[in-house]
Amino acid sequence: MSGRPLPLAGIRVLEFGHTILGPSCGMVLADLGAEVIKIEPPGGERTRRLKGFGTGYFAYFNRNKKSVTLDYKTESGLTDARALITGADVLIENMAPHALSRAGLGPDDAKAINPNLIYCSLKGFLPGPYENRVALDEIAQMMSGLAYMTGPPGQPLRAGTSITDILGGIFGAMGILVALRERDKGHGGAMVEAALFETATFLMGQHMAYAALSDEPVPPMSARVSAWAVYELLETAEGGRVFIGITSDNHWKSFCAEFGRPDLFADTTLKTNEDRIDARARLIPQLVALFKSLPAAEIENRALRAGLPFARVARPEDLFEDAHLNANGSLAATILPNGTATKLPKLPIRIDGESFALRSNPPKAGEDTQAILARLRARDKE
Question: What angle do CA 87, 33, 11 make, to 5 degrees?
Answer without folding.
Answer: 20
